[in-house]
Amino acid sequence: MSPSPSDTANGSQVLQPAAYSFEERSRLLQLAHRAIEARLAGRDVNVTSPTPHLDQKRGAFTTLQLDGELRGCVGYVFPVYSLYRTVAETAVAAALHDIRFSPVTAEEAPRLKIEISVLSPLRPILPEEIEVGRHGLLITCGMRRGLLLPQVPLEHGWDRVAFLEQTCAKSGSSPDAWRHGATLEAFTAEVFGED
Question: Which of 106, 103, 117, 118 is nearest to 33 (CA)?
Fold first, then answer.
């Protein structure tokens, strides 16, 4: 497998082995586009995995950008379906059901840039163990949950504390809930996309 870049806390790049080949990544990105275009045309897309590797159950998020701006991001934290099906479903959900945005139009669809984040299993983590740029976070406060992908704090220049506070805020809890009994879980992600 080819190496893939992974950002570290100081913004430098470290090469880590990629779990998904260039061909697999290309297939998943093309699938995301096809799924969105099919749904906009009132059709379904075939989600039968073309390989046993892409048939493995994995959590994943699909992020859409349009003209350099976020246009939608939806994912499954837990490995419920095959990665192939998960990418198709999250791409459609990001395009049409992300409540922060109006649905993507047929005119916009060909201009979308797609990024896929394939998640590792969740594991409990202590605040001091969190590595900005390596870990994504899921914070649970009672019935509230907030999740941020590993690349988010790098995009905003957050340190570890800001990352924790922003993930708490995303859950709808107070920013310091991580200090007061919230459950912290971490994951890593293999992130790839267009451009």
Answer: 106
CA 111 – CA 33 distance, rounded (Å): 10
Do residues 44 and 38 make contact, with C-beta atoms less than 8 angstroms apart? Answer: yes
State pTM to two decimals: 0.83
CB 147 within 8 A of CB 167: yes
Answer yes or no: are the C-beta atoms of 64 and 35 closer than 8 Å: no
Q: Residue 85 contacts by C-beta under 8 Å, 6 or more apart in sequence? A: 47, 49
How many angstroms separate the most distant Cα atoms in the chain?
48
Q: Please tell me the distance from the alpha carbon of residue 158 to that of residue 175, in angstroms, as a whole number.
A: 14
How many Å apart are CA 21 and CA 118, to the nearest integer?
Answer: 13
Dump pLDDT digits (tens) for 122-146. Answer: 999 999 999 999 999 999 999 999 9
Question: Which alpha helices (H) appear in the chain, and where do they start and end?
Answer: 22-40, 83-96, 151-156, 160-170
Q: Domains plus CATH for the chain?
A: 3-119 (3.30.700.20), 123-188 (3.30.1490.150)
